[in-house]
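Milestone M4 deliverable, item 7.
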Amino acid sequence: MSVRDSAIKVFVDCPDFSNGCDIDFFRTEITFVNYTQNPQDAEVHILITTQQTGGGGTAYTITFIGQHRFAGKADTLHYNAPPAQAADDARRGVKGVLELGLVSYAATTPLGDRLHVSYDAPHGAAAVVHDPWNYWVFSASVNGNLSGQQSFHNGFAFGSFSANRTTEQWKFSLSVNYNYNESDFKLPVDDTLGNEIGTETVASISRGYGWNGLIVKSVGRHWGIGAVGLLSNSTFSNQKLWYRFAPAVEYDFFPYSQSTRQLVTLHYEVGASRYHYYEQTLYGKTQQTLFDQTLTLAATVKQTWGSVNASVQGATYLYDLRKNHLTFFGSTSLNLYRGLSFQLSGNVSLQHDQLSIPLAGATAQEILLQQHQLASSFSYFAFFGLSFNFGSIFNNVVNYHFGSSGGGIIMMM
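Output delivered:
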């Protein structure tokens, strides 16, 4: 058994998904504990909750709940983030509190002798920890919803299953999913004189399923090689069956160990696809095999002034380079001045590779109900926002009175 095997097992629980709760960052920075996927396996369950303070900041309550050999032991610490604090500052503040709270637990283990002001990791600190699941993590979910009124009904169902294994040298991922969406509309029917004589029901149904697989091998500090595969069915896209396999290579201009702060990657893949269509396409095809290539440049930066995510992706079919698409994506959150922040995100896609559009086109009903993909040479989406907080920055009081409406608001007019 290695020294690392004796480290305490912790589960970090962040139900609020706040800026200060970056679990990947914690895993990278706090290395004297072992992280578990399930709370039942943890010796310390860390619950991080947030409340807005009177000054517009965020109050973090970090509760350390002992389990198993630490059963009955519990500690609560706090971190107060001022208004408009950068996401990087918030997560570093929470990380510092986590380190302080975990010291009393880690001190009782053989790693206690290695704890100082900073952690003096043994040689090969990231060595394999003995794991009966061999690092495999599985997830399954089934969900759905129903809504409607007298003239409209909608039902949606979705199910998925995934299996993932991540180590420093290898990454495996497999997922399957199925979705079904049905909407029924009751429309009035008139006679030749314009008098309503009844109703008719118009149904809009879309469904699909998919399988995605990924395997990646780390090669040094900057390179990764692997392959991706998929199998898909979609009535909306006129794809009865689409399966694809693509070897890929990726280069990170910064070492992957710095990916929580900065990540700039160049990703290239060459793939082979087989298509089977529900209806004959604009190009007279009911099935075809095509080869394609994709190049993606992506960047992520997190600093005290804010964060930026950007990418540009170009793809083309090899048999005709004119069949291509080019997509730009970007998002940013900038701290312009004390309390003043700006958010922007969006994407633009120039597309000339819609090979599955049906030859018969779409009826007016199908267009309005969005039952089929429509031909278009471009698409876009944009979001922007500006916020400003001012006033007291020293009010760290949390007041729970009238904090919850119990699931709804009643308005009397």
